[in-house]
Amino acid sequence: MKKLLAIFLIVLVVAGCDGRKSAEELFGQTASGVVVVLNEYYYELKLPAGGSLYFTGLDENGDISGLTADEDEVRANRSMLTGTAFFIGSDGTMMTNRHVASPGIDAVTARRSMIKILRLMKMYISEEMTSLSQQYAVLESQKADCVYTDYYGNVYSDQNRLDEINAKQQDLSRRFDALGQSAGEIDDNIDPEGIKINTVCELGVAYNNTFVTTDKDFVEKNPCVVVRISDKEDVDLALLQLKNKKTPEGAHVFTIKGDGDDDGLLTKLFGGSGKNAPLKIDQQLYMLGYNAGLVLANTRQGIKVQMTSGKVTQLPDGQRLLYSIPALQGSSGSPVIDEYGDVVAVNFAKLGTTDNFNFGIPVERIREFIRK
C-alpha cells in the first residue's frame, strides 16, 4: 500500500512538472527566435538563343508585366513580399516556407505569354520591314526626277538631290537588315521548352523588438541567403541562413518535436503522454508569426511578433496538420508549437477564404527535409 501511495505521489509530482508552459511563458521563451522575412524579387527569362530578359511577374490576365532587357530597370521595380522564419541552429539557419524564400510562378503561363510577346514583336518587325521597303521604293522613283535632258540632248542631274536620296536609302537598308536579323533571333527563341525562368531574390530579416523604416533595414543590416529549397511539391519548406552565419546572441533556437528529447518518468511509467506523445484532437497549439506582415508587426515600439492559438482539428496524415489557429498572409513560415515549446508544424496555407482553418507541414516532413 505504501509503495502504491509513493508511486501515486511521484506521478502527481511529475505530472505537475512535466514541462508544459503557459502561453505567456512560451511567448517569453520563444519570441526572440522568430523573424520577419523581406524578399525583394524578380524573374529572369533565359532565352534559347542566349541572352536574358527580365520581368516582375504576371498580371491578372496571365500576361508578363514589367518586361525589360535592362536588369537595373527591373531591380528598381521588383516585387516584394514578407513572411516569417524561425531559428533552428546557432549558425544563423532559419526555417520558412519555400514560397517565402523563392516565390514561384506559373512557368507554363509565363512561357506562353513570352511566346505571345515574341510573335507580336515579329509581326511588328514584319510590318516595319514592309514600310521600309515601301519608303525605299518611293525614293527610288524620285531619282528619275533628278535627271533631265535639255533641248539639245544634253543630260543633266541634280547630284545633291541624288546624294540625299542615296543616303536615305542606305539608312533604310541598314534598318531593314537590322530588323531582319532581329526577326531571325525571334525565330531562334520561339521555343517554349527552351525558355528557362529563374527567380532572382534579395532577402533580409528583422528581429522582434527592433525598428525598421526601409527595405535596407532588412537586406543590408541582416542579409540572408537561401540554403536549400524542398524539391517536393507538397513540402513547402526552405532553409535560409544569415550571411554572417551567426544566430544573434539571446535569440531562441527552436527544437523540433521528438528530436533527442526524453519524456521522463511519466511517459516511462504510463506512456501516451508527455512532450513526445502523438498529437491529439483538440490539443492546444500556438503559432508565432507576423500576420499581415509589417502592417500589423510594425508598431511604435518596433517590430512585434504575434502569438495566436488554436486546437488540433484533424490529426496529421504525414503530409499536413490541420488546426484552428487564425492566420493571415505574412504568417507563412511561422512555427506552430505545442505546450512544451517544441515545433509540431510549419504554417503554410489556409483553407479557402476562412482564417480559422489552416494547414501546417508536420514534423515528419520537417525532419525529413532537414536531414536530407
From TrEMBL:
It holds the Pfam family Trypsin_2. InterPro entries: Peptidase_S1_PA, Peptidase_S1_PA_chymotrypsin. PANTHER family: PROTEASE DO-LIKE 5, CHLOROPLASTIC, SERINE ENDOPROTEASE DEGS. This is Trypsin-like peptidase domain-containing protein. It comes from Marseilla massiliensis.
